[in-house]
Amino acid sequence: MYANGILVGLSYVKEVTRGVTPDTPTMKSLRATSRNINLEKNSVTSAERRTDRQIADMRHASIKVTGSVGYELCAQAHDDMLAAAISSAFASVTQISGVNMAAAATANTITRATGSFITDNIQAGMTILAAGFATGGNNGRHLVINVTATVLTVASTLATDASASGVTIDVVGKVAKVGTTLDTFTFERRFTDVAKYQQFVGVAVNQMSFSIQPDQMVSGSIDLIGMGGGEISDTSLGSPVAAASNSPLVSFDGAIYADGEKRAVVTGLDFTINNNRSVVPVVGSIISPDVFEGQAVITGTVTAFFADVTEYNLFRNETDSQMGIKLNDINGTDFLSFMFPRLKFSAATMDPPQNGPVTLSMPFSALYDSVTGTSITIQRGNT
After folding, report:
1. How crowded is residue 73: how many other Cβ atoms within 10 Å of its Cβ?
2. What is the mean pLDDT of residues 74-93?
3. Long-range contacts of 275-283 (CB under 8 A, 24+ apart)
């Protein structure tokens, strides 16, 4: 009997000690479109000079784990990988209460009398939950599109409400920013039809890419780097817990906001979080003693219909910009949002076609923002 690709599964568990599988692991299934994870070996070749012109010997050298696992992004199902990609953990944001707040129609703003929304960690692109307004329609979820210390501008249509002390603002779900806690995992590739199981240890998310394109599932790849393993065993680490069953997110069920405005002409957004992590061989062992952290570099490209000079001038004038995208789950409750509080565009190119609209391609780099303390914030709707 031969292994069938359709029956191959991939599961993982977070490690407490890098490179060591927990004694009683609770494995989780990873929803994926590919399961390309493998053991890689370097080799050294003899430089001996021989009169018969042939190579005297070759030896295997240091090992590492490499792989690129494809996925279709789903709310809840990929939370662990998202957190690992930015060396962080999802956490709740403290509710804002005990402050007089008013709502204003036309401008669709919520204004506080004292304190600072910025200090309270509210960012453009976040979804908040308002409660306590006299007008019922002002309560509920709102997507924030602009933030100052005392004013939130939201995408919803608000009614005017006088300042009141009973209003509360809560950030929906949990958020994560770029951090410094590198998590590693034990992965198991499961060939269930032939009862063979391949384990990899000390595996980190080195890079995670995202592609948000019209009429497509939001997709990408999780590039892995790890310390070792690769053995194929007759014994599994355990039947994995099923991943969340949320439907894949799609580009048309969401919105992109940049610099406080909804951008209806964006035709695509791709971005990558690259951690530049490494494993390093040492004398006396073929296995790296650790996975070493690198600089988090976040780059991407926005494509949009060319209509005026607004987007182009962001590049030409080297203007700091901000951008956020919210992707809604079909269940109407869950979502994932990605916020870039500070970015710069490095180019703005056009190659006008013979027919059809002219598009502007704008690569960007997400940069450290001193106000929010991060170059990217991820918000998940689930708690």
Report:
1. 23
2. 97
3. 275/85, 275/87, 275/204, 275/205, 275/206, 275/207, 276/206, 277/182, 277/204, 277/206, 277/225, 278/225, 279/64, 279/202, 279/225, 279/226, 279/227, 281/42, 281/61, 281/62
User: What is the number of structural domains in the chain?
Assistant: 2
Identify residue 122 by its one-letter amino acid code.
Answer: I
At residue 193, does pLDDT exceed 90?
yes
Q: Name the DSSP letter for residue 355.
A: S
DSSP 282: B
Q: How far is 10 from 240, CA to CA, in rounded Å?
A: 9
Tokens of 176: 């994560």
State how far the Cα of 304 lies from the Cα of 235, in Å rounded to an integer. Answer: 51
Asked if the structure places residue 53 within a domain, the reply is no
Closest of 82, 74, 77, 291 to residue 178, by C-alpha: 82
Question: Are 305 and 359 in contact, with CB atoms under 8 Å apart?
Answer: yes
Going by C-alpha positions, the residue among 300, 302, 294, 318 that lies closest to residue 376 is: 300
Instruction: Kindly report, residue by residue over 281-320, the tens digit of the pLDDT.
Output: 999 999 999 999 999 999 999 999 998 888 899 999 999 9
156, 264: one domain: no
pTM: 0.93
CB 96 within 8 A of CB 128: no
Identify whether the C-beta of residue 159 lies closer than 8 Å to the C-beta of residue 197: no
How many beta carbons lie within 10 A of that of residue 362, not counting itself?
Answer: 20
**Residues spanned by the domain of 329:** 5-43+60-90+178-380
Instruction: Render pLDDT for 123-173 as a digit per residue (tens, 0 to 9).
Output: 999 999 999 999 999 999 999 999 999 999 999 999 999 998 999 999 999
